[in-house]
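Risk register update: the risk that structure generation would not scale has been downgraded. Supporting records follow, first protein first.
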Amino acid sequence: MGWDKGGLYYTRSRRVGGRVVREYVGGGPVGELAAQLDALERDRRKGERADAHAERERLAGLDAPLDELNTRADELVWAALVAAGFHQHKRGAWRKKRG
């Protein structure tokens, strides 16, 4: 996106069918208005991305205690099975040791 030919006219790039196509918008006041609208749209999308990132971070913080609990439960189950005479076959199923 930007001004071409030293600021004579404004173009924007958009994706059509997997290819980038440059679209002529106009020069003078029309081009300036289009450039301002595109800048506002970019800022809006940037804000949405920042909001989504903050939400992902918040949810990851909520998941942390559950991840810790899950790890501790796995360790407890592993210890109980080993104490009962089982072993893990090729990091898969638990099997009772022979003999």
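Supporting record for the second protein:
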Amino acid sequence: MHLLDNLRAEHAEITAIRRDIHAHPELAFEEHRTAAIVADRLEALGIETHRGVGKTGVVGVLRAGTSTRAIGLRADMDALPIQEKNDFNHHSRHPGRMHACGHDGHTAMLLGAAAHLARNPAFDGTVYFLFQPAEEGEGGAPAMIADGLFERFPMDAVFGLHNWPGLPLGQIAVHRGPVMACADRFDIEIKGHGAHAAMPHQGIDPVLAGSALVQALQSVVSRNKDPLDAAVLSVTQFHAGDAYNVIPDIARIGGTVRAFRPEIESQVEDTMQRICAGVGAAFGANVNFDYRRGYPPTINTVAEAEFCAAVAAEVCGSTNVSIDPKPSMGAEDFAYFLQEKPGCYIWLGNGPGEGGCTLHNPHYDFNDEAIPFGVAYWVRLAQRWLSVA
């Protein structure tokens, strides 16, 4: 715990950075102010700094010793289009934008780790500090990859973390395998034939066909998939008509699919396609099915997850490390990094999750008491991965 004690001395400085970022949230690929804060601070620490990686991303490069080994540590920087309802001093100064997911805390903690490692380079190799834009649905990770991230900054493995409301402060959760799900979207257009509502026999009712389709789609997970393989199919939109006495021509349905395994993702898509065709034939309607893959499942590699668990135990104590808790049906674009490199994405305890502490909530705020644990985890992860011994 000696490292934690040292880092607590820097707590106020890192907290100030976190709260400044919180007060000035920026949306996906608009993180110009945040990126400038990150890059300026890295340069002030003497860390080689690359701006504009994946549009608004920043990469810091810190080398020590002579080893060719390298590790990547990632933090996300973007905020959400949510109106903040907090009234503390560091509340958002920008209407309709807020850090409701803790990316301000993630950025500040990685900056804290960069500062500590720059001042105490007790490792042999290279640490890449990856400050990623646009995690919230816009794909900042693939943008950085497309910009040559892994060619320009060759690393052996890549690691990420996310604060986790509901996980007690001072605890870390590690998954040896799936940790977050995919996030796919679908749109279904049902073309019927409009008619007077009093004479439905003269038309083809897309509302009736759509209602049957919504019901049938519920069988995809419950009756077409192995119950031991987790998946979620949620219809979240149904739009049709705008009059009380008219059967419309078209109904539109939309929603999301979540799964942990790519093969289950494909099975769900194929089954949905079959059901759409069948319902269309049964009702005489033309059903167009559009399925779009989003973020893939976030799947940790086992060896790296076990390594992270050992580091977490060193930082927090073995009794404060949770191994293989239930994964989340939420999604995370860190998954794209894990498709390219081995690595691990862990959850850092943010304290009670009741009320306004939950993610994507207008009352959310990152718990600053978690900062020393996150910084210590990053520092020890880099030091152990690039051990001098």
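The longest strand covers residues 231-240. On this basis the risk owner (M.S.) recommends closing the item.
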